[in-house]
């Protein structure tokens, strides 16, 4: 039954009833009615972040690990414009997030009033829905549309809310039914049949997987077995497809490793499964047929011309395809790629194993490999953009229970720490580990105060090399002297202690394992400041004239060199299992 309430109270109650447990933001002026509604509503809390950008990152991370709607907010003008970086990240990675962008008084809009911006214009590029509330009754309708759109489109919705309208009384139902459990896309028979024909006609087939195979692992493995296909993956597919995979040939792209690139280029048919892989330069250019399966039809053919495009859920599509294809018997291509993968991995292992326990400053790959050994089986890892992406790709071993994610599509600095906050709020009893670079941590270091205030179970493993390592690498590969990348050493452990956050500073490689093990076992938050070698960059194995400007434009066509952690063991096991 309808009853009179303020729109702010209706908004907060509706979110609470939907299962939203918190709103990330910074209190202030036009946002105050919403904050006060949170204060008086059981079952939902206000999380005080130090920068609204971090609040948006945290909401995006919470949405990614739970699959549910998460919410952030910013006050008028600067408060909500701070949100935009984290919203871009959430939107591009398909995280259902509602952003409440409060606004100046409605009668002042368009007058150049204090803190006036136009959020409904600013957020268009990073949202599926962005509209301004014109009245309380109007807001009740827009709230429903905004929430439903964020859930249905798996991205960001923005509700622009003038402060006076937030206080306006409204008579509206406190709950509206929402479709929170989404169905799956059944592929049409025609494209499925064409894909099956293409598979039967092809001799050598490679499967390339992305985040869209999350619920299709069994189906992907079954298809690989049926057609004797190696399986490669983008970073988004690593956590779902790398582990216990007898067909694994590694990862392609700028951070890639193994034989994935060769497997795609030497195949007759490459099937892209649930991936919006942006680096088209790494995809086959000619003489290879390409098929793509995705539940989002807008992604089909976006990166490369297709011979067959299938709009459908990956699992449902592969189930239908398996009923139509003839099993293949020839394993020569698969076995050759598995051997090539093993050879490629063993050829670079020495990058971190040679004298690594005596290297000072500590070699970052050694840190990542030890961390992988010590972390919990169901740990959630968030990974900073830059060299931490390389260490995460190479060393964090998935097992079906761990989660690993970063700013995969937006590629922003400073994402790992606030994303770890969102993950820790969502799962307070799980180990959450942020792989942070000192550049990223320095950018949003104020969030150490947030972690301390809420005693989040977050371990911040800091790769402290006093350098912007990825930028240094880009400059070197382009043939430029690195400039502006290095800075004076900073004792971040001391800074953490200054804000009351437990910390440890690790400088001796011989003590690394023991100190890291002890720190990870501590309850609650901990900053683990590991002083690493700024010159330990994961360089391409060779540089040609064509590669001088290659790294920044992805024209290198080869993967970065470096260690590969436990992946070499799995590759060796797969090769040992091949028939002699």
From TrEMBL:
* Stretches assigned to the Thiamine pyrophosphate enzyme central domain: 194-320
> Which superkingdom is the protein from?
Bacteria
Q: Which GO terms describe its molecular function?
A: catalytic activity; magnesium ion binding; thiamine pyrophosphate binding
What protein family is recorded? Belongs to the TPP enzyme family.
Keywords from the UniProt entry: Pyruvate, Thiamine pyrophosphate
Task: Give start and end of each Thiamine pyrophosphate enzyme N-terminal TPP-binding domain.
Answer: 6-116
User: What PANTHER family has UniProt attached to this entry?
Assistant: PYRUVATE DEHYDROGENASE [UBIQUINONE]
User: Which InterPro entries does the entry link to?
Assistant: DHS-like_NAD/FAD-binding_dom, POXB-like, THDP-binding, Thiamin_PyroP_enz_cen_dom, Thiamin_PyroP_enz_TPP-bd_dom, TPP-bd_CS, TPP_enzyme_TPP-bd, TPP_POXB-like
Pfam families attached here? TPP_enzyme_C, TPP_enzyme_M, TPP_enzyme_N
Name the chain's protein. Pyruvate dehydrogenase
Q: SUPFAM superfamilies under this entry?
A: DHS-like NAD/FAD-binding domain (SSF52467), Thiamin diphosphate-binding fold (THDP-binding) (SSF52518)
Thiamine pyrophosphate enzyme TPP-binding domain location: 384-530
